[in-house]
What we know:
The structure is a single chain. This protein folds into two domains: 12-179, Collagenase (Catalytic Domain) (3-Layer(aba) Sandwich); 185-366, no CATH class. Helix content is 35%, strand content 20%. The protein contains twelve helices and twelve strands. The chain has helices at 12-21, 28-40, 79-89, 92-108, 119-135, 140-148, 162-175, 182-185, 190-195, 323-332, 339-346, 352-363, and strands spanning 49-52, 59-65, 71-77, 207-212, 217-220, 243-250, 253-262, 271-278, 281-290, 299-303, 308-313, 317-318. A hairpin with a 4-residue loop joins strand 4 and strand 5.
Amino acid sequence: MQFSYSQNYQTVEEVDTICSQLGFASDEDAQLAVDRILKQIGLPSKGFTLKSCPNINNAVAKNIKGSNGKYHRYILYDNQFMSRIENSANTDWSAISILAHEIGHHLIGHSLNNEGSNHTYELEADYWSGWALAKLGASLTEAQSAIQSLRYEKATSTHPAKKDRLLEIEKGWDDGGGIINQMELGIYSQAQLESKGFRFSGENREMVTINGEYGPVKIEAFIGSESNTDDFMYKKEKLDLSNYKGGFIKNGFLNGLVLLEANGTQKIEKQNILLYFVNGKVAYPYIDTYIDGSNPSNFLGVQEGNVSYGCIYIGNWSNEDKDICKELKQIYGDDIFSSDFINNFGKGNIDTKLIEAQFKDFIRSINQIPLDSWNKK
Ligand SMILES: [Zn+2]
C-alpha cells in the first residue's frame, strides 16, 4: 500500500481517459464499502468518486479538477492491488481499511494541496482508518491486516515504518471504541487456563523485573532449586538477567505466551522456556530446554510446578508416551517433539507467533467461560 499522490492525473478527463483506456469497470463492492464507512461516521455518500484504475498498484486520494473548474474528491484504486491485499491478509477488512485510509486523507485535507506522501500525512490517515474501522466493528487485527501484510518494515522517504503505522491504527482504533477480541489476542484468565488443566503456584513469590521485546516487565521468581542446596530457589537472582519475546504488558506485568531466556546472577544454567503468564504468574506445565552447561540442548523438559522431568532427549530416550508429554503436544502442536523444534528452541529461534496459533487452537474450546475484562497495557 504505497499510497501516494504522485500520479499525474490533474483533471477528471485525464483520469477518465487513462483509467478507461486500461479498461476499468466501476466496482460495486468498493462503492458499497465506502458508503458503509461514510454512513457509519454520518457523512453523505456522495462526497467521493471512486474509480478503479488498473496498474497503479496502489490506492490514491486525489482532488481532481472537472471541466467546470470544480474539484472532485477522487479515490483511485487498483482492483488487482486490492484483491492481492485481501488475499494475503485473508479478510475483506484489509480492502476496507485501504479505502478508509484514503477517505481519511481527504477528510483531513491532505489531498487539497496534491503534494506527495509524507510521514505525518500517512500516520494521520492510518489513525483515521483505525478509528473508522473500530466504528465499523472490525477487531484490531482486522483493522491492521492490510498494513500487517506489507512486506516492508522500515521507513522510506514517503512512508513511515510498519510498526509506527500499526501503532497509529491501534491508537485510532482505541479512540474509536474498538473492542478487543480477547480470544483473538490469545489472552486468557487464570480461571480459563485452570479449567484446561494448567496450574498456578499458590505461593506468593517475590517479583523480578526482566527485560525484553516491550521493555521492562515484572514476573514472579518461578525458578526452583537447581541443585541439592540452592539458597536462591524462587528468588529474583535466578531471573534478573532474563529476556522475553512475545506476550504483552498489563499494569507492568508480563502476560500471554512468551519465549523466555531465563538467566540470572545466581542461575546455574541458562534455559529457554516457553510458557504462559497471567499477571506475571506462571501457568504450569511449561516446557524448557537448557542453553548451555552440562545438559544437552537437544533435551526437552517439562516443569509441572514442583515436579520436573524430561520428555525427549534426542538420541537417548523419549518419554513421549507420558500423559503430560502428550498433553504438551496438544498444546503446542505436533512439532514440539521433533529434533528441529528442540534444536531451534534451544537456540531461541522459534516463531512465537506460530506457537501462539497452536496455543490458541488448544484454548479455543474454553470460550464458553466468561472472559475477564482485560485492558491492554
Ligand atoms: Zn496514504
